[in-house]
Amino acid sequence: xxxxxxxxxxxxxxxNTSPNPPVGAVLVRDGVTIGEGFHHRRxxxxxxxxxxxxxxxxxxxxxxxxxxxxxxxxxxxxPCAPAxxxxxxxxxxxxxxxxxxxxxxxxxxxxxxxxxAVDVVNDPEALRLIEPFARAVTSPRPFVTLKLAASLDGHVxxxxxxxxxxxxxxxxxxxxxxxxxxxxxxxxxxxxxxxxLLTVRxxxxxxxxxxxAVICDGRAVPAxxxxxxxxxxxxxxxVLAAGPRARFGQLERVAEVAYIGEEDAPSVxxxxxxxxVRERGVTSVxxxxxxxxxxxxxxxxxxxxxxxxxxxxxxxGPHAVPALGRALAVDQAMAVDRxxxxxxxxxxxxRPRAAVSNPRGAA
Amino acid sequence: xxxxxxxxxxxxxxxNTSPNPPVGAVLVRDGVTIGEGFHHRRxxxxxxxxxxxxxxxxxxxxxxxxxxxxxxxxxxxxPCAPAxxxxxxxxxxxxxxxxxxxxxxxxxxxxxxxxxAVDVVNDPEALRLIEPFARAVTSPRPFVTLKLAASLDGHVxxxxxxxxxxxxxxxxxxxxxxxxxxxxxxxxxxxxxxxxLLTVRxxxxxxxxxxxAVICDGRAVPAxxxxxxxxxxxxxxxVLAAGPRARFGQLERVAEVAYIGEEDAPSVxxxxxxxxVRERGVTSVxxxxxxxxxxxxxxxxxxxxxxxxxxxxxxxGPHAVPALGRALAVDQAMAVDRxxxxxxxxxxxxRPRAAVSNPRGAA
Lengths: 363, 363
Prior knowledge:
12 helices
């Protein structure tokens, strides 16, 4: 129960803690919560420290419930493990181990060496909270969530009109999803077809700059596209381009253009493009692209989490467009780990079966 | 709680009560269950009578919970409403009203006229139990359930191999589904491709004869197909044929061949074919046909219930076969009313939004 509360608190930081993971903590003594905290944003105090401060001098003899293993290394803030020991906490219940290979489990070791009892729960919710972090600290690319919306039978409308397919609750969920990632990624086709802003919409907001990224295979999108409109809270829009440099001259005036591969590359190498995105400090990306980009990401094994939104409709026929492009062969076993109703629609959340989420925790 | 129990009892009769609906009843006095019953099969006592018998002489002052409005007309068995009154039951809680236009709500009227308190709940589960019955008594065709199994993105394997797509729990559910209907329907393509037996498999069994039906558009299937093997408990396999009669001579020796339309009809009129099936005493049909038959039934508005089984897999590509055929345009809004996990797979149960389930009850 306290661990679930810690995870709930952690979730409040989602979207603002990058490159740190969201973390929540609850301090309990004699069955009474004496302090709570979460990591608000990079540079702010860690969750454990916030909970200890909230408890004032009362932490001696208490149990700390924390969604992620407390750190024992100096970063932007002092390490948490020594602070926990110093406060007299006698037991720490940890939702998930720190997946960062650089930390080498020193948090747990330090606590145990100081005589603090430590339980590691490998809680599914706690592991889920650090999925993006686990990807970002173990590979050179960001965590990739692929969002797709389709009819029950896997089609989008013949004339794409996403606002007709899913209802308001599902669309609100997509806004939440967008705000929960450091960046949003689409293909040039989405820009030319829909000219979206791709901004974070109320009630969601971000405390740290947001990135919008566009894949351009050999051809630029119009420089007047709305995705290039600048606003407070946004890093320059990133164009990930393949092909002759001359074609992107106009875009260099309105966006940051990163060239992937040689001038004669016919299309963007998506893995290389994601590494470029990661180098900009982005640890998680939401792909809101169309069927073609979705299939390319999947075929390349670059999807960590699939958010499949199902509209309660059947939409087959000669002109039906498959939600997942058919140019590339995709055969990917998935593990569905969350199904929920969003109004009349369904959300099916899944991850590739082969994906490694936490090298030290349970999958 | 007692009504849920009545529905649970009713479900035990599913598959054997046709042309009657499955019905369950619980008799309660002073908070104690004094009798339970359900309709086992056509010709057997009704659920209410079974519950009254189980209670012996103790029914005076009791409340009867029954999934469907008690009958007040003479059929194969004496009417239930007078028996309930005679037993001294003081209150009847009814899950769903009898949708049969011939009965004209006389059950409720008779009970109220005799001073019995009557509550009609319009319980979703009770309404669901009588969906097939409601269709069969209000139209000349049987209730049609369409079962489809697909990957998340709506495809079946390039080389159809259904046993690879969904897991054992989903396949067991399909066996249960088959036993719950009076007949199974497939297209000729399924017979030539898979040569299935289409029998009811253990642990499921039926007390009344089961029908297997095959749609043949202008061309016969091989007479040695396993679907024509006769066994105890099976009515002759029904071939619903369109086209020149001479082509079906061989099948007439192993099956009952019903010709739909004139000799020059290029394909079977599915609505007319279903009426022929209904005339054989079949009130519910499970379609286990392929993508083409599924799309034809949907496009013709002949599907009452969709059982969409989702395997946790993505299976797109140039050779991927859509679970729903694309030759016909289908645009059907659905209402999803049940989602459950079947092992690693998902079952999404839905009905067309326009479908009328019970003209007298809540939709």
